[in-house]
Amino acid sequence: MVRDEQVLARGSRRSAGTATLFAVKVVTNNALQNISGTVVLAGAGKMGGALLSGWLAQGLDPGRAAVIEPHPSDDIRAYLAKGVRLNPSPKETGPAAAFVVALKPQAFREAGPGLKPYVDAATLVVSIMAGMTIASLGEVLGGHVVRAMPNTPAAIGRGITVAVAAKDVSSAQRDTADALLRAAGAVEWVSDESLMDAVTAVSGSGPAYVFLLAEELARAGVAAGLPERLATKLARETVAGSGELLHRSDLATATLRQNVTSPGGTTAAALEVLMGKDGLQSLMTRAVAAATRRSKELAK
Asked: Residue 136: its pLDDT value, please?
């Protein structure tokens, strides 16, 4: 479905007066290019906007894209010049080939009935709302439902999405849903919808945990005597660089950790605290459990 067509261009990044060549990879997505009918996006906030940007970059015809958003950002309005339609009526769009819901669950409870006219019995409905079940979506909108949970690195094409399909979703519709979601990063499919609450707690909410780590690492650096600006720079670059190393490496996370840790050294002293009885494992287990419970509550 998605293929790297070729490296078409080279540009330069300049650092301290030195130009460094970098490659620009052009990615095409045949499944997006071949969608017949309109793709309607309900909700164009950060996540919805990231999806729309990815679809257009990977070949979706802008004339086949429509956005339902009462308060569009300037970025969303800029797509209108390319042919994307903003707040068209159901009569103008016709029944959507795919209807992607990127609203907050609370907003969907109010807006859902008004969105139903965009959906008919053949429409693929893709939801990225936390806690909203396949059954609830089908009851409000109808169509053939895929429930998905992406995360905010989708904004730079590095997200991870987990999806689950209703039993009546065809293989062709699943391929379309996969293409729509893959425009923002990697996609994993599960067959058990009950896993989605834990997915939300781990990867959906997970970026906030990583950002908190960077915050607190910087604060700890200041407490140890570093200037705030330097502590913040060190924390951000360490978290970002370690994440990229983790992304590129085939080694287990435990192995990567051990590779940094010399017996009796400074890292070992810190890990003795972080891996203690009331350390990071206990905190993270409780945090993910709390987020999982909240996801289940949102479904009620």
From this structure: 93
- Among candidate residues 296, 53, 50, the one with its CA nearest the CA of residue 197: 296
Superfamily of domain 206-298: ProC C-terminal domain-like (1.10.3730.10)
Contact by Cβ (8 Å): 298, 130 = yes
List the chain domain ranges. 30-193, 206-298
| Whole-number Å distance between alpha carbons of 243 and 257 | 12
Specify the fold of 30-193.
Rossmann fold (3.40.50)
How large is the angle between the packed helices 228-248 and 253-260, nearest 10 degrees? 130
Q: What is the pLDDT of residues 210-235, one digit of tens each?
A: 999 999 999 999 999 999 999 999 99
CA distances from 91 to 75, 94, 95, 118, 159 (A): 26, 5, 8, 8, 34
Which residues, given as ranges, of the chain have pLDDT below 50?
1-26
Render the burial of 74-107: b for 16+ CB within 10 Å, e for the rest. Answer: eebeebeeeebbeeeebeebebbbbbbbbbebee
CA dihedral 217, 219, 225, 230 (to 10 degrees): 70
Contact 288, 202 (CB under 8 A): yes
In this prediction, residue 28 carries a pLDDT of 54
Which tens digit of pLDDT belongs to each residue from 60-81?
A: 999 999 999 999 999 999 999 9
Name every residue whose Cβ is closer than 8 Å to that of residue 198 and which is 6 or more positions away in sequence.
288, 292
Q: At 93, list the tokens.
A: 């769009």
Considering the entire predicted model, what is its pTM? Answer: 0.85
Number of neighbours of residue 31 by Cβ within 10 angstroms: 20
